[in-house]
Amino acid sequence: MRGELLPVVYCLTVRKDLSTYSRIFEVVYFKAEVELGVQLDPAKFVCDFEAALITAIEGSFPNTRLQGCFFHICQAVVLQVGQFGLGNHYANNQEIRKKVKMLMAISIFAGESSARGVRNLKCWGVG
Predict the structure, then answer these.
(1) C-alpha span between 26 and 59 (Å, rounded)
(2) Which residues form the MULE transposase domain (predicted)?
């Protein structure tokens, strides 16, 4: 399944703290190893941007590459638009909406491609 994403665990929690996330990973790791005979060593984790979750993943799976979820990146951008007082402009101005969506799209590209995308946005008067 190289190159494919496979959701392995869905978990609802009451708290979003390091001890909760670490405990979840301990239980999942234990169940996989003891009950299924599987050694967990995921190549990649796709998650949102909670600091406690990221720290727990790094502690539990140090060889795993972390990748932010595109939905949560877009959600964070829209939140920032509102916090900068641009919510009404975003809602009512098609050109501003287009530029914000272009900014969101940059996160799809890696490395030099994203830098080139930022330069292009500046050329288009977005930055």
Answers:
(1) 11
(2) 3-75
Counting beta carbons within 10 angstroms of the beta carbon of residue 100, is it exposed (0 to 12), middle (13 to 18) or buried (19 or more)?
buried
Supply the pTM of this predicted model.
0.66
**Helix 70-83 vs helix 94-106: angle between axes, to the nearest 10 degrees?**
140
pLDDT score of 108 more than 70? yes
Question: Looking at residue 118, what is its pLDDT?
Answer: 66
Is residue 116 in a domain? Answer: yes
Name the 3-class secondary structure at 66: strand
Q: Is residue 52 part of a domain?
A: yes
Residue 6 lies in a domain: no
